[in-house]
Amino acid sequence: METVVGVEWNDEGKDEENGVEKSSSALSSPKQIADPVIYKLVRVEGDGRLVPATDDELMEVGDFLEDDKSEMHDVADTVQTLGCMCNEGLSSEKTLIESSEGLLKSKNSKVDACKLNARLEECFPSSTLSLKDNHINQFGDTGGVPKPPDKMMESGSSAAAVCAGLNFDFSKLKGEICLDKLSIRELHEVFKATFGRETTVKDKLWLKRRISMGLTNSCDISTTMFMIKDNNLVKKGDDEGSKDVDGSFTHDPSVGTIDVNCKGSPSSIGSQSEDHQIGSGKKLRNHGVDLDSGSEQLHTEQRTAKRMRKPTKRYIEELSEVDSRDYSQRLMSSPKNAGLGQIAPRSFARPVRNVLSDGRTVVTRLDSLGGLGVHVPYVSRVRRSRPRKNVMALMHSFPARCQMSQFFAELEKDRQHSVMSRSELEENLRRTQADSSGDNSDDNVVTVPTAKGGMRRKHHRAWTLVEVMKLVEGVSKCGAGRWSDIKRLAFASYSYRTSVDLKDKWRNLLKASFAQAPPDDVMNSRKPTSMPIPEPILERVRELAETNARVPPNLGTSKPTVGSRNSQDTMSGYL
DNA sequence: TTTAGGG
DNA sequence: CCCTAAA
What we know:
Layout: E1 3-10, H1 14-18, E2 37-44, E3 50-52, H2 55-66, E4 80-84, H3 96-105, H4 113-123, H5 127-130, H6 133-141, H7 151-156, H8 184-195, H9 204-216, E5 226-229, E6 232-235, H10 238-246, H11 252-256, H12 268-282, H13 313-328, E7 351-355, E8 361-369, E9 372-377, H14 391-397, H15 406-419, H16 422-430, E10 445-449, E11 455-459, H17 465-478, H18 483-490, H19 499-514, H20 520-524, H21 535-550
Helix pairs in contact: 4-6, 8-9, 17-18, 17-21, 18-19, 19-21
The protein binds a DNA duplex through strand 11 and helix 19.
């Protein structure tokens, strides 16, 4: 399948790279403001390759999403820098893409998952894939036709991933998440668990892709530790993680090599063609006749690309709010992970006065979305009322937005979703009564009676896998305890997660990770509770817990915790 | 303000 | 999640 994927890369972690002593204060140093976030467009080939997007492609992206018959060109040697937030001229506009491309390119002839696996194995020897070795071999031996992960295997091998039950139970996955065998409904479960919101899309491939990307792409979570292989979520070895420390990011991108398609699936060939089908033929069904034929609400997910449309006021407001938020984000210590979040880099917000045909004048600001300069009306960040639920759909209609892959759009949605949470809720609350239309339904906000009288709002926002992963990674980078740092770094775009929340969640994760996985049977009893954390993640948590315990947050000379995880893996020198 | 722990 | 003590 040809998917244009924006890949974000930033030099977050530069400090580590340079081996510069990073005092705790360094994290919040203004210097970070200059840290760039760069988007590059790449295409994920059906065989898992990442191919840089060509100019043409860039131009086409919009159409791509909009035009069923559009096709991506296969030729490509230029990596486009779509957008560069903050400053240009970043030294290290390294490239995950490039490197990853080189890494994976070789196996283009045969669209064979095995190859890829083998390839990956080469690059991330031993420990890296330790978790998955059997898995890989299995695939390899079966000539690309993976053994269907079913219960049968579960018992025998830890590699077996089991995906059954309507309530997606990650705990049963023994370290891997297999998306292939899931039903649409199950995929919906996973999707929700992953992104924290529902989806109505019924396209399996679409779902799988989304989920996979959501879990692996660096855009949202640095892919330092997890990767999707053949539709399985796997944990990368520590040596990978150490990359941030020694500066060679180069390999990381490989993780971003989301190989959702070359699976994995019952028949590599079949799936392949299947993909193309989607890739060119029905194309996400964006406009197909079947586009939610008679379905309920707008399938926002599927509308990520409509025709260019003048941004609606609501959209503008949304955007403005985001901007303001970013501004106020206090020096934004690190754009990291803010990812596509920073839609409109502060630097580009220059008001411009325009005169409309009808005589009115509006002030617009240059919005550099996707590298394009667009003027959008400038309005106060204050929103009059809660945005419609599907405001996101509108967002996605916006031209520049289409520059980003659906994936980006998706993540963006996720982010947006999060953005308009707390503050907004409070705002609305303050606004008391008023729009009953602004149903609180979509905000998991309920008021709970508090012991001491009043009613208190209780934000119960289930943690999504993505968030958990970000948290884990944050801890690995900053160390447990430095919640505010982690908050800033990894959760800059998640306004509703406070450092305390992170702390609490981590506490829970620890608990979960050390509690031996209950026998499936018991667990199996349809536990409507929170989603189980995938084993790979729990494992990571354990590791971090250990290394953090052994090497208490030592401030001072030695870089606090960063790289502490290397303490264990002697394999580091390997790569 | 941020952390750490208890509720 | 919330609250609070302590730093």
